[in-house]
Amino acid sequence: MKFIFWQNILSPHQSDFISALADEHDVTLVVMSRIDNHRKGQNWQAKYSDKVNIIVSPSLMDIIQIIHTANNKTHCFSGFFAYPKISFALFLSCIYRKTNIVLSEAVSSNGLINKCKLYIRKSLTLLFSGRIYQVFAIGTDGVNYFKQLGFLRSKLSEFGYFVSPPETVKRTGSQPYIVFVGRLIPLKGIIPLLDMCKKLKSKGIAVKIIGGGPLKATVISFLEEHRLDFVELLSDMPRERVMKIIGNASSLLLPNIGDEGWGVVLNEALLQGTPVICSLKTGANVVVVDEVQGRILTEVTSNELLEAVRFCSSLNHEKIKAMALKSLKPEIGAKYFVRQMSDSRSSNAPWFKGESN
Q1: pLDDT digit string, tens, across residues 120-178
Q2: CATH, residue 53
Q3: What is the C-alpha to C-alpha distance for residues 118 and 301, in angstroms, rounded to an integer?
């Protein structure tokens, strides 16, 4: 098969999946820019196979030409009328063909502006859903979102992010620690995590918080006020070092209190055998087998987090890793992606009951 992917930026969350797809198929990637300013300080690096033909920053005339001439290729668009140039490309492609693919997370409907956007996208669904062959919706929230827009369930495939397993880390017998990786913003659950840290003082467990963001000053002030010297705040680190820290951790925490589209760091933890503690608000919770690969919290409180940390300390790391390798590798995602466009499409995502399809 021949694919053209349309993305806003070169995404490290999708580079491994697209590269795996290119091992078996003809793949072109069209991106509006290499990386946005928001991500430059987060050590984002997207590495693609040499087999992927990449076009960067196309002009409107370039977009028109690609859409017009690539009739024998399947066009896959990131987001559903989310980015200006990609929306223009999707609009044109829907005029030319009805084999278009959309790959997207759910979009928040909180607030007046987002509610207006929801109404607009519902109207666009009425106009263009017949020209869209399949929607690969990120997580169950994504599936529910596109059903809300008006897409038929038969056109929706639950999807996610597939990243290559980090280099295997040999676990050491040093002081156990737990780790949080992400932006320091309220929806990530950083406040209840800090409250839990106060209760860890006598437990002999260290905490590493990796990230930056609006709440960085709040975190520093909290740690100083409560003298939590066993909590280490880190930022601006190479990805390799972050992966090593995750691979040696007793558990990784991403206790969202607001909707998270996915949370790729959960993949990176599971693929190294590190238990994860997340919430139902974390999109990637669908890949976690509760009480086997970690804990999925229905309510994020300091007590619930503390109990989850205790529970995860006894989980089997090799079993966690083996289960993740069966459902989260890029090759698995690529095969599932192609299968969903055939007569033998599956009703289940690769991680359904921890098994690959």
Answers
A1: 999 999 999 999 999 999 998 999 999 999 999 999 999 999 999 988 767 766 789 99
A2: 3.40.50
A3: 31
Give me the residues of the chain with pLDDT under 50, please: 354-357
C-alpha–C-alpha distance, residues 174 and 271, integer Å? 21
Q: Is the separation of the CB atoms in 129 and 150 below 8 Å?
A: yes
- Report helix, strand or coil for 266: helix
**Cα–Cα distance, 105 to 80 (Å, whole number):** 9
Query: CB neighbours of 209 closer than 8 A, spacing ≥ 6?
Result: 179, 180, 184, 190, 193, 219, 231, 232, 233, 234
Domain count, the chain: 2
Q: Is residue 171 in a domain?
A: no
116 and 50 co-located in one domain: yes
Domain span at residue 87 reads 2-164+330-354
pTM: 0.92
Look at the block and give the residue holding tokens 């495939």.
157
